[in-house]
């Protein structure tokens, strides 16, 4: 019997979409959902390894009150069928994201694009795609990394990078069944993926999603993650970006977030969430929603219904970075640096504003 891939009641149960559709990406068929009012600012969300659209449930529930939220199942996850031989790669992830953007956004419309874990890697993999450059007004990279994941992971806490690489290679590529959701398996999942303070309801929701992932897809994508090298993609992701990470993340520890901030061309902020693990959108959906709303307010609020800034010159290409210049740029930069945390977030988060620092400067 196929496992139910999510809880069915409470804040972590997926809300009903306004519209469900299938998107074709090459030979893959992707399941996607659209939530929220037509004509509202758009947010597109890509989930991580072993997850599904259900993973975003508490984020969607909040954002969809006044945003159009688009979520989709990565190939081999949720209701998206597994691809054929050769269908697992970062190129495929980029293909799928751009296909979803083209299928769900109106002509000329832009969106804030967010990705968690493998979803963040999807955005980095698509950095060179014209569709992403034209359609992404800003991006949020949550609990993710660009390269050498197995050497930094602390799920198996060996002392040397070499030992951690070997151990985590076996873990990532394993196709062993996870078994039924039980107190033992939930405790193991909580240790590996969540912070110590995560609630039983959060752990249950996470376990239902992860255990429903087919073992073949889990193993194939795990091997892709083991060999991941997207530092170059991150360095070419020339759109306003924010990075978010839990300080107790064992899968993609804080070091990855800080490295991303140092190579992203226009990193505006790094948010470190004290005590949270890898599953940040489930563990503290309010913090993730706060950052997504802030990106929408800053980068889409002045844009029209099709995503074009009011008063935009016809000759200016869509998706180009719009940075203030001269005295206004100096004033804006000074205001950001002197303003502290102005987003009203009271979760005790540690925000490291980078103010679009150039590659190589400290985050």
Which key phrases capture this entry?
363 residues; globular; 37% helix; 14 helices; alpha/beta; nine-stranded mixed β-sheet; disordered C terminus
Commentary on this structure:
- With 363 residues, the chain is α/β, with parallel strands linked by helices.
- The chain has helices at residues 57-63, 90-104, 118-125, 130-135, 149-152, 161-173, 183-193, 200-211, 215-226, 231-235, 254-263, 280-283, 285-299, 326-338, and strands spanning 19-25, 28-35, 42-46, 68-72, 111-116, 136-142, 241-246, 267-273, 350-357.
- The chain has a 9-stranded mixed sheet with strand order 1-2-4-3-5-6-7-8-9, sandwiched between helices.
- Mean pLDDT, all residues: 85
Q: Which word captures the global form?
A: globular
Which structural class do you get from the secondary structure elements?
alpha/beta
Q: Could you give a short account of the major beta sheet?
A: 9 strands, mixed
Order of helices and strands: EEEHEHEHHEHHHHHHEHEHHHE
How are the strands of the largest sheet arranged? 1-2-4-3-5-6-7-8-9
Count all strands and give the number: 9
- Report the portion of residues in β strands: 15-25%
Distance between the termini: 48 Å
**Low-confidence parts:** 305-348, 356-363
What percent of residues adopt helix (DSSP H or I)? 25-40%
Tally of alpha and pi helices:
14
Q: Could you tell me the radius of gyration in angstroms?
A: 19 Å
């Amino acid at each position: 019997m196929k496992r139910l891939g999510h809880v069915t009641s409470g804040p972590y149960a997926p809300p009903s979409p306004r519209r469900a559709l299938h998107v074709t990406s090459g030979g893959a068929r992707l399941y996607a959902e659209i939530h929220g009012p037509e004509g509202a600012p758009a947010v597109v969300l890509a989930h991580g390894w072993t997850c599904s659209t259900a993973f975003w449930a508490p984020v969607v529930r909040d954002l969809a009150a006044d945003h159009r939220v688009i979520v989709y199942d990565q190939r081999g996850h949720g209701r998206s069928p597994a691809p054929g031989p050769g269908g697992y790669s970062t190129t495929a992830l980029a293909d799928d994201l751009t296909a979803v953007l083209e299928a769900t956004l109106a002509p000329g419309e832009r969106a804030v694009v967010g990705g968690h874990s493998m979803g963040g890697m999807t955005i980095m993999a698509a950095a060179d795609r014209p569709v992403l450059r034209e359609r992404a007004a800003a991006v949020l990279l949550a609990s993710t990394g660009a390269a050498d994941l197995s050497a930094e992971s602390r799920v198996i806490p060996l002392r040397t990078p070499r030992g951690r690489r070997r151990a985590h290679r076996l873990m990532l590529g394993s196709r062993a069944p996870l078994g039924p959701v039980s107190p033992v398996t939930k405790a193991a999942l909580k240790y590996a993926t969540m912070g110590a303070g995560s609630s039983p309801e959060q752990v249950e929701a996470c376990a239902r999603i992860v255990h429903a992932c087919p073992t073949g897809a889990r193993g194939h994508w795990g091997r892709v993650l083991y060999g991941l090298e997207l530092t170059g993609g991150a360095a070419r992701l020339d759109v306003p970006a924010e990075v978010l990470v839990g300080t107790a993340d064992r899968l993609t520890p804080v070091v990855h977030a800080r490295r991303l901030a140092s190579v992203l061309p226009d990193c505006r902020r790094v948010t470190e969430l004290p005590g949270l693990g890898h599953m940040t959108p489930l563990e503290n959906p309010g913090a993730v929603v706060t950052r997504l709303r802030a990106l929408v307010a800053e980068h889409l609020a002045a844009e029209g219904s099709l995503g074009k800034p009011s008063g935009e010159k016809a000759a200016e290409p869509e998706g180009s970075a719009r940075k203030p210049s001269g005295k206004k740029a100096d004033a804006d930069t000074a205001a950001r640096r002197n303003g502290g945390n102005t987003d009203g977030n009271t979760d005790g988060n540690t925000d490291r504003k980078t103010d679009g620092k150039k590659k190589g400067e400290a985050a």
